[in-house]
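Hey there, shall we discuss this one?
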Amino acid sequence: MTAEQHGRTSVLSETSVCSCCNENDDVEIPEENAVDLNEVCIDVPLPSPPIPHDVLHRKISPVSLNYVAEEEGPGTKKAEWMGKLDFLMSCMGYSVGLGNMWRFPYLVYKNGGAVFFVPYFIMLIFVGWPLFFLEMSLGQFSRCGSLNVWKACPLFEGIGYAMVAASLLITFYYNVLNGWVIMYLFDSFREEVSYRLCNLTWNTEHCFRKEDDDACIAENGTNVFYNQTCFEFVEADYLNITKELVNATHRVLPTEEYFKYNVLGLSDGIDHWGELRWQNVACLAASWSLTLIVYFTATFPYLVLLAFLIRGMMLEGALAGLKYYLVPDFKRLADPNMWIDAAGQVLFSLGVAFGGLMTLSSYNRFQNNCLRDALTIFCADTLTSFLSGCAIFAVLGFLSHESGEPIHDVVQAGSGLAFVAFPEAILRMPIPTFWSILFFFMLATLGADSVVAVLETVVIALAEKFPAIMPHRTSLLWGCCIVLFLLGLPMCTGAGLYWFTLLNDYGASWTVLVIALLENIAIVFVYGINRLCNDIEMMLGPTPWMRMSVYWKFCWLVSIPSLITGSMVFYWASYRRTLTEPSFPLWAEVVGWLIALIPVSMVPGTLIYRVIRRNQNMSVLECVKNLCQPADDWGPLFD
């Protein structure tokens, strides 16, 4: 079906009113009541015929590849979600993850607190949500994954491959993060969690616990606690250990030292690899194993987050942390890196520009209200990020009050901020071992859910694009897991955190913005805004769509291209290195740029390939014009 055929019309199909009668029906229609069947078929679709038994009872699990439809041919139906809740829970598992509980608070902390919310909410409302709804609508309308959906505009088929590449790039380092979570989970089963102590082999003389200092002074008000030792006043005076010296000493929380020196074995820089840390390798393997067996849970994180938020609010100094989190310093709005971070986090958190939303929504019924679904998932994702930030900054306010240091200096763990703040909150909960197990188990399953959804997006997209590999999709899944596990091994060395930071800064920032911008251009300006709106109206009907049509058109035509382009121009025009010497030499930055260019290069690369393989009787210009038109088999697959 061509775009012109489905722009405002339908085709005679088994779901149209024309199929309600057949050649054997003995039906007489009076001449005065005769109607144009084409018009009836257009506007009055009948309910779908019964779904075949094998499809109706095919459980579409967000953690199993068994729901991929068999190779479709004439008369076949694509598998569908058994219920609305299956789809919503799967989308929440895809969108809501460690990016909300780890990456969002880290970026707020990195960019000066509450001022980060200004570009974040601008990008969220005028870029993130419109693109989120756009992808969900495309997937549901076409019933195609992230590769086949570009039959709508074959010129930009490379965007689908860019989405697959970006998904694989994110997944292999994302699961390293989940490996760290599993290491914390294992430690939680100890009688006393290790990240509470300062007397273990990895601790330094700077490790400081407030309860040790309080206990020392409680023995005698003149005592001095220094270098994990309680000195009487006379002894301290003899050793020239004064309170001024103690107060000037850099103090490091045991949770921070546990993360840096036990979990990471942190080296001096990205070029100092050290040995392969086998405990990290084992946890990374456990993380990939969990990816293959875990089943989705969606409401669990909110209950745990609520408990941590309540406990954090009860800590002394929590209000100062929340003030830092919620009261902006507008002077920092001129920082271009903050705008790129905000836009990148919006897309990363919602899962936009990775192809997963298209794939998941392609299993919806044609007339499903995807607008309502998009709003539900959007709100859940935003709420998770906000609550995570509240919980973390309440603890940071407490740590600032306890240490006497300003909030922006109280933790130096960088992208590992959540691995310091949340354990500190756990240590102040009743029965900390129980809460530690609960929290890190929740994080592990949350991370695995997101990885599963991304992996299935990749495998399903490839299986739909290349039907020959569909019978081998399970092998493809295992192959992806093994290869990505091997790629994650460098992050199990002493330089692991540096490589992780490099991938996080370059792989999930402007790269995703470029893909999102190209996606918007391809659908809105090449495929056509009117054609897109007609497609959505065909699915949703005029009433819910028309209420917000002006907003959607403004965002797709104006705000998305202008905000993304403006942010990237602003960023590159005032570019400065954010990962600096000595930890990140110049070659590391070059590697980061090359990694970031891999997904983006798929777009021009695929276009060049299609032009080279064109019919030789066709000029390059004619080929490009032809590729701007929807493919002959583009169009909706009706229920």
About this structure: The first helix runs from residue 3 to 8. The longest strand covers residues 224-226. Strands lie at 224-226, 229-231.
